[in-house]
Amino acid sequence: MFFDFGIKDILDIVLVALMLYYLYRLMKESRSLNIFIGIMFFVLVWLLVSQVFEMRLLGGILDKLVSVGVIALIILFQEEIRKFLYSMGAHQRVRGVMNFFYKNDNKAKEDKETIIPS
Known about the structure:
Elements (H helix, E strand, L loop, with lengths): L6 H23 L3 H20 L3 H21 L1 H13 L1 H24 L3
Helix pairs in contact: 2-3
């Protein structure tokens, strides 16, 4: 079996690894790692029951719990999600990119006002 492995694949793996690392670090800092491990165990059991063993009744019940569980996860990890999004927005590299676009927008306004005075 031959795989076509390119630079996009390497970038994809690195980005997923970074995301998982920051998620793990955030979970460890907020002491919610045990909850996350419990959720992953539940998802593993759900996949085994529904996909591997093909138990329709139990799989259907667990499917419904998983679909409602997404909302419960958002409520449960609300503070951690907020911290993660804040840390992403406050990161220097993100701010540098935002400042680049913001400076270009201000420069375009200044050029427009120079050409067409208000």
